[in-house]
User: What shape does this take?
Amino acid sequence: NAGVTQTPKFRVLKTGQSMTLLCAQDMNHEYMYWYRQDPGMGLRLIHYSVGEGTTAKGEVPDGYNVSRLKKQNFLLGLESAAPSQTSVYFCAIGAPNRGGQETQYFGPGTRLLVL
Amino acid sequence: QKEVEQDPGPLSVPEGAIVSLNCTYSNSAFQYFMWYRQYSRKGPELLMYTYSSGNKEDGRFTAQVDKSSKYISLFIRDSQPSDSATYLCAMTIVKAAGNKLTFGGGTRVLVKP
Assistant: This one.
């Protein structure tokens, strides 16, 4: 998975609980992304970061917060989990391809079940 | 209507057959097109990327883009059971920083021995 690790692999939460998902890269790439994947919906971008200390909203940011305090780590937080946040969460890093453009490589995913 | 449409399948083919996958899109500004393969309970894995209209070949895989029709395809020749997976198309408008990918919903492919 292109040097991208995600922690934890699986988690069960009760409605209203909070948690943080960690994405870590063992390289030095600037761009990092958080997606969620739901059946029939494909992958949808939650938040992204173009460098240490920067974050921006994606397509479905509500209910999530992120931080990029260190370049290697991108954290996704759920302050008050809801059943609608049951999903598989993927982190991706953006790396230059042979043409110099960015290509995204994904981590193994975190499965989250909110009861 | 979704920006990127992809038939969910499943698409079942016998081993050795050609697998034909496609996506249609509505945003004519998309410039950069990718295909990812995703095995069950794994992260998406990049297969191919292309910018221009026309064909791009890599081993058993051929990606085709027709920007005038807003249609992209992926062909897998000599399919193997190990090709059984979900295939996701993705596309984006190329920007200086932070390319937001728009994905199709994925097509599940089953290659039967």
Summary: Chain A touches chain B at residues 1, 4, 30-31, 40-45, 48-50, 56, 58-59, 90, 94, 97, 99, 101-109 (CB under 8 Å). The two ends of chain A are 29 Å apart (CA to CA). The longest strand of chain A covers residues 87-96.
